[in-house]
Each structure stands twice: as C-alpha cells, then as structure tokens.
C-alpha cells in the first residue's frame, strides 16, 4: 500500500544525558544516515514487488491464449519480458552492492557516508520507476484483469508510485544527491 504519512511536534522536551544517543546537536546528521538505509530498503521493496509481478505475468503469458497461440509465444510479449528481467537483475545487483557497502562502512570503515548516500540515491532513483514500469507492462499482458481492484497489480502500481514521489525524498532529490556526490557541494543548485 505504499507509504503512510503524518507528523508530530515536540515542544519543551527535556532529556537527561543518560538518554542522549550520540552527540548533542548531531541529530540531523544521524537522521540523514538513516535516510540512506531507508532508501536501500525502499529500493529492495520495489525490486521485490517488480519481481513478484513479473512472476505473475510470466505465469499468465505461459497459460493464456490469444488468436490460437499462447501469449508467451509472441515476440511483442517476449522482448519486453526480456528487457524487464534484465533491468530487474541489474537493479538487484545495484541494491545488493549498496547494502553491502553500508555494511562495510559500519563494520570495516571501507566506505564513507557520501559513498553510501550516492549509491542509495541511485537505488532509490531507479527502483520505484522500474517497478512502476514493470507493473504497467504486466497489466497490459493481463488486459482488463490487470487494473481491477480484485487483482494485486492495481494496488502495486499505487504503492510503488508513492515511493517515487515521497518516502525518503523525491526522484529529483535523489538526482541532487547523486550530482552533489559526483561534482561537489559547490555545484549544489540551492547554494549561491
């Protein structure tokens, strides 16, 4: 079902030093680290959703007939399937590598927070868009059944769309993060 949204406000909160996590006045930076981990998880969610819908679509085209032939025997179905499968495998590898990098950063200090921010933003930039495209493709294979509320694709399309317009930053925010890491802070569009 995608993301839920909400908010809260804390006023005049006092916290004893015994309950302080990390360094005082570093909370923003800790939260930003959390965004990178969350972006990896969002990408993994989208990859998993795309994989599930492709499996559903493959089962359908292997069994459904049109004009006396199985849908899977038409190149107009096979070629998009091959492209989607290849894209899915590429995104899995990117996401696995990024999760591995995060683990290596915390366990062996092999990567920096900037390395992780860039890789996680790349995952978040590609995975929701890809999952959305895969779901639309499979919905086409299923015809009218693909967009009924009784079938999971309709809900999946709404769910993965929420990850590209919200949830740990929009796609344009991901592009800004990646550009910042490639070019440096002096090229940030919001700084003069």
Q: Can you walk me through this structure?
A:
By secondary structure, this protein is mostly helical. It has a single domain (34-184), classed as Butyryl-CoA Dehydrogenase, subunit A, domain 3 (Up-down Bundle). It has helices at 27-63, 75-108, 113-142, 152-165, 171-183; strands at 65-66, 69-70.
Please specify the SSE layout and strand pairing.
Blueprint lengths: L26 H37 L1 E2 L2 E2 L4 H34 L4 H30 L9 H14 L5 H13 L9
Antiparallel strand pairs: 1-2
Order of helices and strands: HEEHHHH
Q: How much of the sequence is in beta strands?
A: under 5%
- The name CATH uses for the topology is Butyryl-CoA Dehydrogenase, subunit A, domain 3
Task: Identify low-pLDDT runs.
Answer: none
Shape field: elongated
Share in helix: 55-70%
Distinct helical segment count? 5
Q: How many domain regions?
A: 1
Can you count the beta strands?
2
Radius of gyration: 21 Å
Largest sheet: 2 strands, antiparallel
Kindly report the spatial arrangement of strands forming the biggest sheet.
Answer: 1-2
Q: Superfamily at the CATH H level?
A: Butyryl-CoA Dehydrogenase, subunit A, domain 3
Structural class: mainly alpha
CATH class: Mainly Alpha
Distance between the amino and carboxyl termini: 40 Å
